[in-house]
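sorry for the late reply, my laptop died twice this morning and i had to redo everyting from scratch. anyway the thing you sent over, i finally got around to it. pasting the sequence first so we're on the same page, its 642 residues, then the predicted structure underneath. double check i copied it right bc i was rushing
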Amino acid sequence: MGDRLKWVVLFFTILFWGLAFTAIKYAVQSLTPYELAFLRFLVADTLFIATIVHSRYRIERSDLLKVTFIGVFGVAIYHVSLNAGEMFIPSGVASLIIAMSPVFILIFSAMFLDERITLAKVAGIVIALLGVYVLSHPESWGDLTGILLVLIATLSAGIYTVGGKVLMRKYDPLVLTSYVMVLGSVPLIPFAITSFHSVLRADLLTVLSVVFPTYFSYQGWYYFLNREEASKASVFLQAIPVVSILAGYFLLGEGDNISNGHRRCDGDGRNHHRGQEQELNQLTLRIAVDTITKSFLRQKFSEYYARAEIPLPRGFAEREWAFVSVDSLPDFVMNRHMAFESDIEFRGYVIKNPPLHAYYSSAYYENPGAERMDDKGWKGADLIFDIDADHLPKGGLEGAKRQIIRLYDLLEEDFGVEDMTIVFSGGRGYHIHVHDEEFRQMGSGERREIVDYLMLEGVEFSETLPLTSQHLRVGRCMARIIERAIEKGKVMEVLGVRKSTAERLETVFPANREKIYGGDFRQLPKPVRGKLPALFRRCVEHLRIHVDPPVTADVKRLIRLPGSLHGKTSLRVTPLSRDEVEGFDPFEDAVAFGDEEVRVRVKTGVRFRLMGEEFRLSRGKHTLPEFAALYLICRNVALYGW
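ok and here's the structure:
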């Protein structure tokens, strides 16, 4: 019965390990890779600890170091080395190298367990290796660094298996597995702490999908290993990729993953190599890649904040501050209700905790660090305007720049603003910060009236326009269009009138120029007056300034800090004077990083321009200048490393 049971346990061990990757596919629909990894260790370690507590067996103090040694190799070193290695080599190559673990187990078993190296064992390993080679079919072996890292993972698997077999002479495999897994996962805790909150939103099916592969398979493996030679047992591990690929095919419809070397013929008989990467270890690879990418991003952002001279806004000690940390990726988690007493305190914070995005309040507060808005004590707020390129009818970022220039001039001419700053947002638009104290006490309603004025809301046409600033702006625009048409001899084309009407207009307009520029169009020929409503609408659209109303009306708005970095582009949030803005090129003048070469993996084809250089990149590995690499990483188009 016992001999038969071990094969049943092996069957379910291989089945659960193989199905793990299908379970991962389901789980990442509701959790990020970091959150899922934390959930796996949290749930599994809870069960492992419960196993230890309820068992009458204990690991002797003299053996704890040995158990920890095995656990660190089998859990922490194995996963980190494998995941890091797959950044530099294709997954097919990685799976082929991992398939060599029975070789190390065979050697270690002979050295430490006195197991014989037989022809049958060698043949079994060779056949398994050939099977994995056919399955993965690598076209390129990749970088030597990646090969060495995955070899370390393979070596770790051998140490974990043989070391466990040695200690099984003394300890029950169930308890031994529990100790090994708990102690081995300790080095991974720092990567998981920030995702604790996500466990609360995991559904039952997600929890079960990680319990079986993590807890029961590891327990089952040591159970089988206790009853079989380590060198012989290791050969059966090669069945895991088969189960994984078949599960992906039948449960998830991932037919393309059956073989990396699969080929198909199209209608004209040409062969196309499908080249699909295996799903094996997909989740853990993404965790390692994301972790390394985040570490690179954190390092570069920290270096920027250490060297950048960022002038803090006036009254900064009365402002609320808010930051989105690099560590929160891929989520957007804002840490707000902060306050700083000095420039040194602020600089120390952003260097130690480099923000992906940095904000401060337009408002001034009595107690800016209070967590409840009602407790802050509002004292006033700067007047803020935001023009977003994506909200414009046309023109893009260049159109946003033209709009911000017109807004600046209009605020100066019509509102008498004397103290204001233009700021490139670092992304897709521009801001204007008005600092004049007479605007600080304005409420939301008054600020909205300014928005209506700028956007020409409520203006209507009449042949005699009202003498308001808004109508006079539109009237002058109409008069200029008519006058220029006369000067260029294109009245018929511009206004769509007959030649006789155009000739009459050429006489009437100069005689009534002052009235027409004042908004009185009654002296114009009747056919021309019939064209005026359309001309009025044209001028309204031309003169309308497309500010974002909620931004201006909000008296407690959080706005990007000039001089900080925009976490979705890596470009600098750049303050500009009126004279500087016209010649400003955000894709050169807002670039904050150098041209040191960086290796990245581009996730999809992309085309962009930076620092006067046009980039056209296909999906795959590229070596780019640092400024281009960070731009793509922040846009979530690339990952750091190969």
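Residues 422 and 432 are 5 Å apart (CA to CA).
thats about all i looked at so far, will dig more tmrw
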